[in-house]
Amino acid sequence: ERSPLNVLNCGKSFSRSSNLVMHQRTQTGEKPFECPVCGKSFSFHSSLVRHQTTHTGEKPFECPLCGKSFSQSSNLVIHQRTHTGEKPFECPDCGKRFSQNSNLMTHQRTHTGEKPFECSNCGKHFSQNSSLVIHQRTHTGEKPYECPDCGKDFSSRSS
């Protein structure tokens, strides 16, 4: 019988070395798989393969209700919840429900106060990556959104 493989930092155990490696990459942020088209990197080969469909434009998964197509079956499943209203992910703290697990995880940070996204320029922390991206524009001066009425540029869509 093989002994479990332990992670030194968090104490989790894995019976397969491949699962240990996958877990460690999520902890270290290591992304050894790079897209040859755009250079974006991924922690897992499967994530790279899934990403590459964005370049081919291939969308083989079609919604039978509205005809919208998706490159990944998981995105079709999420989309179909817009038709059914299904929200299978419930916050254990307040009971609010979500159609996507990622939205639940983001929401839970409102309860924990966790801010895992750090600005490399000033050290400020954010609970959502999208908030960090908008903040970083204060350092770069980037203003990618233009008002259609006056032509003025803005750093975020809601400005």
From TrEMBL:
Pfam families: zf-C2H2, zf-H2C2_2. It comes from Micrurus corallinus. Its main location: nucleus. InterPro entries: Znf_C2H2_sf (IPR036236), Znf_C2H2_type (IPR013087). It is found in: Nucleus. This is C2H2-type domain-containing protein. May be involved in transcriptional regulation. GO terms for cellular component: nucleus. Keywords: DNA-binding, Metal-binding, Nucleus, Repeat, Transcription, Transcription regulation, Zinc, Zinc-finger. SUPFAM superfamilies: beta-beta-alpha zinc fingers. The keyword Transcription applies. Belongs to the krueppel C2H2-type zinc-finger protein family. GO terms for molecular function: DNA-binding transcription factor activity, RNA polymerase II-specific; RNA polymerase II cis-regulatory region sequence-specific DNA binding; zinc ion binding. Residues 5-32, 33-60, 61-88, 89-116, 117-144, 145-159 form the C2H2-type domain.
